[in-house]
């Protein structure tokens, strides 16, 4: 890759992203801000975050291929990199079928969209692909800088690295929560994971590949499943869980802060892993 993400970033829904948060995250030492929630293809929010910071990378996690055409996204890419070279990574993906009426032949859609990004002049090394299963992971390695898996575990990271091989980017997302009470932590985690993810077939299939069963999906998620995808507890416990991804082959982990004060979680992770 020509873009340097560092070992840690944050993943934040567009609704919770502000220039002020971006500046604070940069000061904490994070290497990237991943914009969640399928940002609009015009990508005006990317300009806002880059203008408010000095060096941190901004990535999309992800632009939804069903929602925004590649020509529009490609034009946005060129506008952004002309002003902020080396600071933007275009993450794209197809989301999950339950959220998209025209969701059909998803693999063909991905290939076609990447072809169109080629035509729009978006370099392979400046884009990443949302990927969970082996087939799309392989495509990520062949047609982009690498993969951005969402809602995964260090065990998935280990298997994904085997599929990708050495070299391609592997940048999983992992949720973090500063809460030491198990019941409260799992209550917050369950509210985040239950909908839409435990109704989305692509995530359920990925969990099954990791050894989870229908029992783990019932009632909003078993403690085993919730503890696997949400790192909660003390800063040290959270940091140790995120480090498992790095040990398993991740190049970069983007943490998503849960709870009433995500910034507190970002500060705690930074103090543990970036200080």
UniProtKB/TrEMBL annotation:
Molecular function (Gene Ontology), one example: oxidoreductase activity
Keywords for the protein's UniProt record, in alphabetical order: Oxidoreductase
SUPFAM superfamilies according to UniProt: Bacterial luciferase-like (SSF51679)
Enzyme class: oxidoreductase
InterPro entries reported in the protein's UniProt record: Bact_Lucif_Oxidored, Lucif-like_OxRdatse_MSMEG_4141, Luciferase-like_sf
Record flagged with keyword Oxidoreductase: yes
NCBIfam families: F420_MSMEG_4141
Listed name of the protein: LLM class F420-dependent oxidoreductase
Organism: Amycolatopsis pigmentata
């Amino acid at each position: 890759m020509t873009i340097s993400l560092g070992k840690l970033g944050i993943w934040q829904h567009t609704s919770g992203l502000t220039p002020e948060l971006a500046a604070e995250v940069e000061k904490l030492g994070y290497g990237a801000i991943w914009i969640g929630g399928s940002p609009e293809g015009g990508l005006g929010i990317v300009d806002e975050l880059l203008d408010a910071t000095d060096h941190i990378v901004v990535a999309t996690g992800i632009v939804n291929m069903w929602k925004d055409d590649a020509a529009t996204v490609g034009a946005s890419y060129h506008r952004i990199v002309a002003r902020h070279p080396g600071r933007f990574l275009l993450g794209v993906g197809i989301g999950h079928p339950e959220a998209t009426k025209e969701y059909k032949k998803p693999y063909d859609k991905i290939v076609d969209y990447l072809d169109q990004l080629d035509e729009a002049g978006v370099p392979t090394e400046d884009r990443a692909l949302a990927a969970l299963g082996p087939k799309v992971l392989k495509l990520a390695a062949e047609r982009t800088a690498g993969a951005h898996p969402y809602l995964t575990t260090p065990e998935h990271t280990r298997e994904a690295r085997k599929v990708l091989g050495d070299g391609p980017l592997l940048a999983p997302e992992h949720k973090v929560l500063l809460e030491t009470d198990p019941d409260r932590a799992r209550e917050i985690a369950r509210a985040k994971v239950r909908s839409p993810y435990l109704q989305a077939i692509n995530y359920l299939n990925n969990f099954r590949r990791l050894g989870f069963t229908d029992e783990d999906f019932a009632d909003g998620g078993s403690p085993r499943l919730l503890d696997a995808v949400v790192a909660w507890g003390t800063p040290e416990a959270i940091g140790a869980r995120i480090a498992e991804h790095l040990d398993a082959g991740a190049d970069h982990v983007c943490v998503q802060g849960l709870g009433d004060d995500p910034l507190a979680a970002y500060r705690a992770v930074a103090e543990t892993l970036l200080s």
